[in-house]
Amino acid sequence: MKYYTFAAALIASSATASPDVAFTSIGHFSLKNAAFPAVTSFQGSDPFLLVSSFGALSSGAIYVVPNVADAVKNNTVAQLKPVELKTPSFAWPNSVQVVP
Q1: 3-state DSSP call for residue 53?
Q2: Where are the strands (E) in 1-87, listed by range?
Q3: Cα separation of 15 and 78, whole Å?
Q4: pLDDT value at position 87?
Q5: What share of the chain is helix, strand, coil (3-state, %, to 5)?
Q6: Which of 1, 26, 63, 96 is in Cβ range 3.0-4.6 Å of 82 for a Cys bridge?
Q7: How far apart are CA 47 and CA 65, in angstroms?
Q8: For the segment 70-85, what is each residue's pLDDT rounded down to a tens digit?
Q9: Residue 85 CB contacts under 8 Å (≥ 6 apart), including other chains
């Protein structure tokens, strides 16, 4: 059993050691307690980012981050500004999505 566990761990670590996709950071923006992001849009609108935010001992919130596609294209991700949706307090918002 120990050999099987060791072999499985070795295979898993070697699989994660060589990524299939190269990653290059183009910047970041800050959002406290960010939890579940979703890139979405309304029909006919530009894409935007919806992000839920919550902590273990605090209520949650939902943020909209507009102009995500333009920020990625123009390398201005660091200038993105999350806008909090003014809604009643959420306990722990998990799934965020556009409702038609």
Answers
A1: strand
A2: 34-40, 48-53, 61-65, 83-84
A3: 32
A4: 73
A5: 25, 20, 55
A6: 63
A7: 9
A8: 998 898 989 999 999 8
A9: 61, 62, 63, 64
